[in-house]
Amino acid sequence: MPKKVLVTGGTSGLGLYVTHQLVKRGYKVTVTGRNAEALADLQTVGVRAVAWNMTLQHEQTDWPLELLETDYDVVVINAGVGFFKTHDTLTPEEIREMLVINVELPMLLARYHSPFMQQKNKGLLLFIGSLAGRMASPKASVYAASKHALTGYVQGLRMELMDSGVDVSIVQPGPIDTPFIDKTDQSGGYKKALGKHILSIEQVGDIVMQQLDSPKGEVLVPGHLGAGAKLAQLAPLLFERYGKRIYAKK
Fold first, then answer.
1. Contact 9/18 with Cβ under 8 angstroms?
2. 135-163 per-residue burial string, b: 16 or more CB within 10 A, e: under 16
3. Among 79, 105, 102, 113, which Cα is nearest to 10's?
4. CA dist 228 to 16, 222, 232, Å?
5. 75 is in which domain, residue-wise?
6. Contact by Cβ (8 Å): 79, 105
7. What is the pTM of this model?
8. Into how many domains does the chain fold?
């Protein structure tokens, strides 16, 4: 019987790529998102597409019924939001939205689906994080804080479920060439500064798909930026001094 997969944020660039790869593999896929046109297109390829406005429906009592089904083998928690502004220009609403969608909802989704996977002694909770969860940067203080929180949660969750048969994995990509970065970097300066370091959807999507076969716990993408993330933790002040030259262009 084909595995049943839930993908949140499945109408984003990365979410769409992963969803189509899942369909090619024969998985039974349920996708949530806000983009009505993308949801309609996914239905034509056999995906069960569910409209879910996470900002307005963040309470479990408001979730679409499809999210509450108990037989998912894999839950891909991909939805995320970011506003790249200085800390004092972020609105309270933008701060709350990042914390709700990037932190609270992933925790609630894992809390709901984990017990059913544990009953079966198998399953995969696959989170899509960000290298911002390992290193912060200017104009992304709250976004980085939300991803740091997610990283810490996943680490603790992975240890809690270590002997349960349920795998917990997080993919931490650097900047991806998607509408997300265009929306958050309207000047285009940050994207230009990144140059060859910006990732393609396919690069990240293929690594996400690899986790279904062999979960690695945590994967930093690409490797050389992952090394930078480790340096940021070992020598944060040194990293801030030299890294700011690139990140200040955001």
1. no
2. bbbbbbbbbbbbbbbbbebbeebbeebee
3. 79
4. 29, 10, 6
5. 4-247
6. yes
7. 0.86
8. 1
